[in-house]
Structure formats: C-alpha cells, structure tokens
C-alpha cells in the first residue's frame, strides 16, 4: 500500500548495513506475509525487475541479467540503491564484489555512457566501461593468495657512512659493470635503520662502505635471508668474486 511504501524504501536502503535477521523482522512488520517474496525479489535481479513492471528499461535489464546467466554469471543482484559518482552515465551502472566473506569490498565499477565522447568533439558512440582500484585489486589478490612474492630488482643495498661518497660510487659502478643492480644510500641514518629498509624492500644483499673499507679495500656483504656475512677484497678480482656470489645468491 502507498502508506507503507516509503517506510519499505527506507528499509531497502539500509539492507546492506544491518543484520539480515533485523532486516527481515523490520520488513515483516510492514509487509506481513509478503516478506519472503520481497526479500527474494531483492536478492534476485530478475524477480525485482519483473515486480516493477514491463518498461523498456526493465526489459533491457532483465535481458542483461539473463544474458550474463547464459555465460555462467549467475550471482547478479539488482541493487536499487546503487549510485555511481560520475554524471556521464546514462544507462545501467554496476559494481563487482569479491564473494569471499573476508573481503567484502567493491573491486571495480562502471556503467554505460553514450555521449562521453562528445566532450572530445567526437561522434557519440555507445560504450560501457569500468575503473579498477589498485588497492582493492591488491586486497583481492592477497585474500585469495594470488599475490606473487615481491622480488626486488635491486640486488645490493650499499650504505655509505662517514661521507665516503666517492669511494662508494666507484665500487657501485664497478659492480654495475659486472651486472649487479646497486642501490646506494647516502643518508646519515643509522646502519640499523638502513638495514631495516633493505629488508623491507626485499633486497637480498647489504654492505657498508666507510673509512675502514676505503682504507683496507675490503667489504663485508651480508646475505639478508640468513644473515650470513662474507668479506671480499675490493680489487678487480674481489669485485668479480663479489658480483658472482651475488648473482648466484651465495
């Protein structure tokens, strides 16, 4: 009845924000024996659109839902409260959600826009598009254990101490000539902080260049996976041996 419609509409707007049992109980107070039918319609796009009547847009949406069902997409839900934030949509809009209970977030969304190209003085062409969020995609991949382990392109993190910049640059360039990607840290942060950064960035090897290394022409390189440490001479042969050890992950 007209007297109850507004109250039912307000409840429908709250459907995704309150527990299912609370929603059903609230609908039952207004709809009585029609409660199950209303809830079933809300959870089935086709049933909801059929309940709204035979209009061109309703027929079109039913055709879309049926078409998706034929290609195996059977979990489509028509949501009357869905609103996309852009003003160029002129047809149906949609959002795609993860079905895993641990990640109930919209991964991407979009819709139909027929006149968007007119902005660029082009012929208006009917189109459907969507945008995806990088954070939501990462959440999806992590939830389903599909995110590959990060592998740093940098092999050696070289921390310069006590302003041994010139010597550090020479060693870094010689290692790069041997095919080793080197990140050089010129900051005044503590060795501990720089070591933590190398670990966070998944760089496999860590070394320090300071006055002692410049004087003795040696360097201690730490393999961060097991914290083992090996010394290398910084002559031509030693640098070649160091590069080989890094490339072989030894």
Written account of the structure:
The protein is an alpha/beta fold and 250 residues long. It is 42% helix and 18% strand. It has helices at residues 2-13, 20-31, 35-42, 45-52, 56-70, 134-143, 165-177, 191-200, 211-216, 236-247, and strands at 93-97, 106-113, 127-132, 156-160, 182-185, 205-209, 218-223, 228-233. The chain has a five-stranded mixed sheet, sandwiched between helices. Strands 1-2-3 form a three-stranded antiparallel sheet. A hairpin with a 4-residue loop joins β7 (218-223) and β8 (228-233). α1 packs antiparallel against α2, α3 crosses α4 and α4 (45-52) runs antiparallel to α5 (56-70). The chain is elongated and about 90 Å long. 15% of the residues are buried.
Intertermini distance: 78 Å
Shape: elongated
Number of helices, where a helix is a run of at least 4 consecutive DSSP H or I residues = 10
What does the largest sheet look like?
A: 5 strands, mixed
């Amino acid at each position: 009845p007209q007297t109850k419609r507004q109250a039912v509409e307000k409840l429908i707007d709250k459907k995704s924000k309150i527990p299912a049992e609370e929603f059903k109980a609230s609908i039952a107070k207004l709809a009585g024996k029609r409660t199950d039918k209303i809830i079933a319609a809300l959870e089935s796009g086709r049933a909801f659109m059929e309940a709204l009547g035979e209009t061109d847009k309703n027929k079109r949406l039913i055709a879309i839902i049926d078409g998706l069902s034929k290609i195996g997409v059977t979990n489509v839900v028509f949501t009357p409260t869905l609103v996309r934030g852009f003003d160029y949509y002129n047809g149906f809009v949609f959002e795609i959600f993860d079905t895993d209970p641990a990640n109930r977030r919209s991964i991407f969304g979009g819709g139909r826009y027929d006149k968007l190209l007119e902005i660029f003085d082009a012929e208006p062409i009917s189109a459907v598009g969507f945008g995806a969020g990088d954070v939501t995609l990462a959440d999806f991949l992590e939830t389903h254990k599909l995110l590959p382990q990060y592998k740093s392109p940098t092999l050696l993190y070289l921390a310069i101490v006590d302003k041994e910049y010139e010597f550090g640059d020479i060693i870094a360039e010689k290692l790069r000539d041997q095919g080793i990607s080197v990140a050089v840290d010129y900051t005044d942060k503590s060795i501990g902080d720089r070591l933590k950064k190398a670990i966070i960035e998944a760089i496999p090897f860590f070394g320090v260049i300071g006055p002692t290394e410049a004087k003795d022409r040696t360097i201690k390189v730490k393999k961060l996976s097991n914290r083992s440490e090996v010394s290398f001479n910084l002559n031509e042969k030693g640098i070649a041996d160091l590069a080989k050890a890094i490339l072989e992950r030894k």
